[in-house]
Amino acid sequence: MDHLIQRAVKHLAAAQNAVALTGAGISIESGIPPFRGKGGLWEKFDPMEIAHIDALIRDPARVWKILVKDLKDIIDRAAPNDGHKGLARLEKLGILKTVITQNIDGLHQMAGNTDVIEFHGTFAWQRCMKCDRRIETRKVDASVLPPRCGCSGILRPDAVFFGEMIPPVALWRSQEVTARCDVMLVVGTSAVVQPAASMPILAKQAGAVVIEINPEPTPLTGVVCDFLILGDAGAIMNRIISGLEAQR
User: Fold this and answer.
1) What is the pLDDT of residues 103-128, one digit of tens each?
2) Helix, strand, or coil here: 37?
3) What residues contact residue 193 under an 8 Å CB cut-off, 6+ apart?
4) Hey, what domains does the chain have and what are their CATH numbers?
5) Interatomic CA distance for residues 121 and 139, integer angstroms
6) First to last CA, the chain
7) Are 24 and 123 within 8 A, CB to CB?
8) Most confident region among 15-19, 64-68, 77-81, 143-147 by mean pLDDT
9) What is residue 46's predicted lDDT score, i.e. its pLDDT?
10) CB 191 within 8 A of CB 219
11) Active centre residues (catalytic)
12) Other CB atoms closer than 10 Å to residue 183's CB: what's the count?
């Protein structure tokens, strides 16, 4: 693995405009369960029953009770791990310009990244279904479900539910920064959810080096990515950062 870490350090040290695409794998180390895959929430619940916009409109109290409240409790306690902190350090070193994340936990911002495109929105904020006011999730009282805004409207996560569109600005900005990057880090994503999974392909087509950091191969491995570093995001990012800082 040492030679792969060294390759990553070499490419990042030369990068002028690096971008990261992150998925659930980077936040597992912070105690946030994934939605898909082994141990994911969709093994326990049918997403069409509790995570579809129609379900939220039909019975918001049920969606809050089954899905949102538990996620709120988890996110309230979660803190950035070394994977998030490593990406924030890359930004401070002037290497990483933007993080495109499929995650909804707000941990990249908490770690210190300043340009984060939240592809699927965020659970870190709630939005009133009546007046559109946004309230930080940590400040929402969920003792009575569903919680309500001061205007009496029902609060909902400011995230994309099934049946809703990806925010157009998030999609446009993701495509724009991807087309301009010279290195893309693909960290902790299964690369099966579209259209986010197409970003490494766009990066590759634009001539970028695509580096994958994942605990197991994905559909991108050996096809789109230049190389895969197998392992947990936190440990690998620590080694990459150490290598970059040693050069400086």
Assistant:
1) 989 999 999 999 999 999 998 899 99
2) coil
3) 23, 36, 102
4) 1-31+80-120+166-248 (3.40.50.1220), 33-77+125-159 (3.30.1600.10)
5) 18
6) 22
7) no
8) 15-19
9) 72
10) yes
11) 120
12) 23
Cα Dmax for the chain:
58
Tens of pLDDT along 211-241?
Answer: 999 999 989 998 999 999 999 999 999 999 9
Torsion angle (degrees, nearest 10) of CA 131, 134, 138, 142: 10
Residue 89, helix vs strand vs coil: helix
What band does 35 get if pLDDT is binned at 50, 70 and 90? low
Q: Can you give the pTM of this predicted structure?
A: 0.89
Which residue has tokens 């087509």? 205
Helix (H, G, I), strand (E, B) or coil at 116: strand
Angstrom distances, CA of residue 183 to CA of 9, 28, 43? 11, 24, 34
- How far is Cα 72 from Cα 4, in angstroms, rounded to an integer? 37
Strand-pair partners of 100: 21, 117
Q: How is residue 245 written in tokens?
A: 């800082």
CB within 8 Å of 53: residues ≥ 6 apart: 161, 162, 163, 164
Please check the confidence at residue 137 and state whether its pLDDT lies above 70: yes
Per the document, the length of the chain is 248
Which tokens is 64 given? 């809050």
